[in-house]
């Protein structure tokens, strides 16, 4: 929630000139105070379905202790689901029809696993773009994570992602590129974000289509960009929502795939993630896995418990700060009626008046 300039104190004007959100007493008195409704379109595979819910719910919940948030999970057809996940979705998720009827102030679209060479061949492509087309007209801002970013950049601007020679996998240092943008105002100017992807949309392709790049890494590419209007679509290429253990879980999954001969090379470590003690444990474990695979022997469990305690989370504070900025801005411009995206007077082509 922003400051209210309730006196003539010059500091208010000074902060406002520096980009801080400051409400006039007039605006503050007339602001409608209500809860915010955020959709979570969860298209992650079954194994990560509930972990993904927890990650985004946690980020929304932890980013601001004053506002009230209602998060509405829903999903789409075209994803392979087992009976347990289907029961969970049937019992707890809302339908897209209901979401459309009631309206949303903001929408988060999760990452996904892909099985085809081109995203438009995925069974979820059409339902995903249907949700997006509705949101584009009716929701104040849509935040896309990883795969959703790739899919919607392709859908909106015709740019296909590029397959990388090796998976971009680990925790990378990033810098804020445009310090004046309200989404990254008042946050650390250098911070970590995990990435986990085989594909990339490059900065030059984004900028060619008018997207504004806000946070990028020399090693890992763009993490955060926004649509040409400055706010209506927020693209994350990294995973600021990840838990401390998420990359460990993915690493374990890859080790098991190696043991089952579903991949030929032993998986590398995610970069800048395991400390030396963890790497020693995992190197010993790798010798065991290789011997077990080639000798057809039973596999011992990975020593996860010994590793978890030493994992650091170095991205969460900045992730919360960006989410807080995002939802704060949504709140300032969304309509009192949650089915409508903007208050009167907000320009849909430049909603933040940048
Ligand atoms: C790696 C796995 C398979 C691990 O799941 P498993 O259930 O097998 O793990 P497990 O060792 O049995 O552990 C189970 C416990 O850990 C929790 N758990 C599982 N995965 C977790 C995760 N990623 N983060 C945090 N917690 C996690 C479970 O909820 C459960 O908790 P409780 O016991 O407490 O309930 C899963 O997380 C997964 O599929 N992740 C996929 C992530 C992914 O694909 N990300 C890429 C998006 S990338 C993208 O969108 C673009 C990709 C591209 O470039 O094409
Ligand atoms: N954007 C509204 C808050 C949401 O109803 C206002 O500032 O009054």
UniProtKB/TrEMBL annotation:
It catalyses: L-homoserine + succinyl-CoA = O-succinyl-L-homoserine + CoA. The record marks 113, 147 as: Important for acyl-CoA specificity. Transmembrane segments: none annotated. Keywords: Acyltransferase, Amino-acid biosynthesis, Cytoplasm, Methionine biosynthesis, Transferase. It is an enzyme of class 2 (transferase). Its EC number is 2.3.1.46. It is found in: Cytoplasm. Substrate binds at residues 167, 196, 253. InterPro entries: Class_I_gatase-like (IPR029062), MetA_family (IPR033752). The active site is at 146 (acyl-thioester intermediate), 239 (proton acceptor), 241. Pathway: Amino-acid biosynthesis; L-methionine biosynthesis via de novo pathway; O-succinyl-L-homoserine from L-homoserine: step 1/1. The record marks 196 as: Important for substrate specificity. Belongs to the MetA family. This is Homoserine O-succinyltransferase. It comes from Methylomonas aurea. The lineage of its organism: Bacteria, Pseudomonadati, Pseudomonadota, Gammaproteobacteria, Methylococcales. The gene is metAS.
């Amino acid at each position: 929630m922003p400051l209210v300039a309730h006196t003539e104190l010059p500091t208010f004007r000074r902060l406002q000139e520096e980009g801080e959100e400051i409400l006039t007493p007039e605006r503050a008195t007339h602001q409608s105070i209500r809860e915010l409704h955020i959709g979570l379109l969860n298209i992650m595979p079954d194994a990560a379905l509930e972990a993904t819910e927890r990650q985004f719910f946690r980020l929304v919940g932890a980013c601001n202790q004053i506002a009230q948030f209602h998060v509405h999970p829903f999903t789409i057809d075209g994803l392979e689901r087992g009976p347990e996940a289907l029961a969970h979705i049937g019992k707890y998720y809302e339908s897209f029809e209901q979401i459309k009827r009631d309206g949303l102030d903001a929408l988060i679209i999760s990452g996904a696993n892909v099985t085809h060479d081109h995203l438009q061949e995925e069974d979820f492509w059409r339902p995903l773009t249907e949700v997006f087309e509705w949101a584009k007209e009716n929701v104040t801002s849509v935040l896309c994570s990883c795969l959703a970013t790739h899919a919607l950049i392709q859908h909106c601007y015709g740019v296909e992602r590029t397959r990388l020679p090796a998976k971009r996998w680990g925790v990378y240092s990033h810098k804020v590129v445009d310090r004046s943008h309200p989404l990254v105002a008042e946050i650390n100017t250098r911070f970590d974000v995990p990435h986990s992807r085989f594909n990339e949309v490059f900065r030059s392709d984004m900028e060619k289509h008018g997207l504004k790049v806000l946070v990028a890494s020399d090693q890992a590419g763009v993490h955060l960009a926004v649509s040409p209007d400055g706010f209506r679509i927020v693209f994350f290429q990294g995973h600021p929502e990840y838990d401390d253990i998420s990359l460990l879980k993915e690493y374990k999954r890859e080790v098991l795939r190696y043991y089952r001969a579903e991949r030929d090379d032993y998986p590398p470590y995610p970069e800048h993630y395991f400390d030396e003690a963890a790497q020693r444990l995992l190197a010993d474990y790798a010798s065991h896995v290789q011997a077990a695979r080639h000798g057809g022997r039973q596999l011992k469990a990975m020593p996860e418990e010994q590793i978890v305690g030493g994992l650091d989370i170095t991205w969460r504070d900045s992730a919360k700060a960006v989410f807080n900025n995002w939802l704060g801005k949504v709140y300032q411009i969304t309509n009192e009626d949650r089915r409508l995206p903007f208050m009167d007077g907000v320009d849909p082509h430049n909603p933040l008046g940048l």
